[in-house]
Structure formats: structure tokens, C-alpha cells
Amino acid sequence: MRTLGVDLAAATRKTAVAVLAWAGGQARLEHLALDVGDPEIVDLFGASGMTGIDCPVGWPDAFLPFIAGHLNFEAHPVLDHDGIEGRRLLAYRDTDRFVTGQTGLIPLSVSADRLAHPAMRCAVIQAKIAREHGPQARDGSGRLAEVYPAASLKSWGLAARGYKGRAAPESERLAMVLDALAAAAPWLDLAGQEDRLAASDDMFDALIASLTARAVALGRTLRPDAGHAAAALTEGWIHLPRGGLEELPG
Predict the structure, then answer these.
(1) Does the predicted model carry a pTM greater than 0.85?
(2) Which residue from 32, 38, 39 is spatially nearest to 16, judged by alpha carbons?
């Protein structure tokens, strides 16, 4: 099978993709690109068995009624979220809180932080995928799953922080994390792309997203239980790997 990882940004120049081909107990990096537009993402989705996208696929359930109430001068749905606790329900999804509880990491807010613009692009891409290949459930039960590379790295026992950026300390940290990944996954053939991966945290995150997509395909991620299932279908669900990297080749 092939897995696609997408590190989605608002701008194409910061958007990266990585395709891994899985066979015979190994995975080979088949395609790696930066500056990727929507048509390429949709085409690669169609050619992949599972896609992991590093971007929220939905918004908090409370957010739309709050905005609609404000628009229509309806006080009740707005006043329901008075105070800091109410605003947290507008800013963070059920899956965000779940990830924090599991990993200690706090995902950026899709409605109140820098992810808002990429999430708008993600919604458009989901609509394009639905038009070309059919709608994909937001809980990851189809062929599209939301992933969070930092949480995947932490779940696999690898460094999850300090590698984003172009300054020397971040570049050195990224090279170290890439070396640690290579040591932990000797079955992973990076096809001579190590230098490009070490020079771009976007492409590296796309690689981690593709690896996480494989975990989703194998059923080796934490899925929403009955208490989270309804919200996962509307808000989205971040898939956290369960088990080690050694389980991914199958």
C-alpha cells in the first residue's frame, strides 16, 4: 500500500507531502515535495490507501452556534460561553483535550490561533476530495485521518519539540531527530532524501504524517470511544499511534 502524509499550511510554498510505499516489511520514500498545491494533494490522495493530514479537519461544535448567535443577536448561545471556561469550548475541540490528556502537548486552537487559515484551506481540500473521490469521515474511519506529528513523535519515544525553525539550534535538533528516526526504523528507506528532510521541518512533518497514516491503516492508533465518537464525526479526531515504530512494516 501507499500512504500519503500532508503537512498543510495556508500557503502552498509551506505545504509539503510525503508518499511511502509499503511492501515486504519495508517502507520506501517514493515522493517528497514542498510547495504543493491543492490539485497535487487531491491526486496523491486518490493514489494512496490512507492519507494523514497535519491540520484540523473541523471546528469545535460550540463555535458555529456561538457565531450564529452573535450574527443574529441571539443572546443565549453567546452567553452560554461567558468566561474563560466557556471560551475554551469555543477554542478547543474534544480531540484537542484528549491529546493533551494523553501526551501533555497542547494543540493550537483551530478557531483562535494560527491554524485558522490552514484549516479553511483544509476544508476546501476536503470538499475537492469529496467531489473527486467521495466524502471522507472526519473521525479517520475512511481514507483521510487527522494527525499531529509532534504527538506521533512523542508516542514513539522520539523528540517532539525544538526542531521547527531555520536557525542553527533548530536545524541541529531536526538533524538529530531524523537520525533518531532512522535508528528506530531501520526498515525505512529514505531514498537518499535525508539532506532535504534535514533542511525542512515541513517535509519532515509530512514524513511523520505518512508514517502515522500507516498506523491508522493498521488500526494501531487510539480511536474515539463511545464518549468521543459523536464529536469526532463533526469536529475531527487526531490519531495518536499506539505501539512502536517496529509494528508499522507489518
Answers:
(1) yes
(2) 32
